[in-house]
Amino acid sequence: MKYVFAMILTLFSSAALLGQPQLATKHVLSLNAAKGIAEAVEKDALKRGSTVVIAVVDDEGHLLVLERLDDTQVASVEVAIGKARTAAIFRRPSKDFEDQIKNGRVAALALPGATSLQGGIPILFAGKVGGAIGVSWNTPQEDEDIAKAGVAAAPTAR
């Protein structure tokens, strides 16, 4: 009888714990943080003598900040946004998709929402994507290097 009572007590205790919904905690970029990141990217670009478009998006790929430095081509606006959105929603650098295509996986061109160009970098908080940066108008490597200046400036980003 004691054994049955102990089993029933364990079942009720487990059910009580399972019945408690747990909410996830996620870190996302605030507008103020996104502005600071864009400012750091702009400073790095200007230090290099580059004119670029800078896009900072939230963890779902929605635009928070957009800057087009003087004399940067207008066409780079959509490209920078696409690179940032790709890094956010696919949770990896946009370069990964460019590399896939270079290596023969042309099917990567058909991925909905993917901009397969280097220069989009996710911003991680506690190992999770909280936003991303996209930079466009220089060489692919320069775009990525400039975007990384924003990642380095992100508060508590790793």
Structure characterization notes:
It is a single chain. The protein is an alpha+beta fold. It has a single domain (24-153), classed as Haem-degrading domain (Beta-Lactamase, 2-Layer Sandwich), CATH 3.30.450.150. 44% of the residues lie in helices and 17% in strands. It contains five helices and four strands; from the N terminus they run H-H-E-E-H-H-E-E-H. The protein has helices spanning 2-18, 31-47, 76-89, 95-102, 140-153; strands at 53-58, 63-68, 120-125, 128-136. It is globular.
Strand content: 15-25%
Helical amount: 40-55%
Task: Write down the CATH class.
Answer: Alpha Beta
* Number of separate strands: 4
Mean pLDDT: 88
How would you spell out the order of helices and strands?
HHEEHHEEH
- Please name the CATH architecture: 2-Layer Sandwich
Quick synopsis:
The protein is built from five helices and four strands. Mean pLDDT is 88; it is low at 4-9. The chain has helices at residues 2-18, 31-47, 76-89, 95-102, 140-153; strands at residues 53-58, 63-68, 120-125, 128-136.
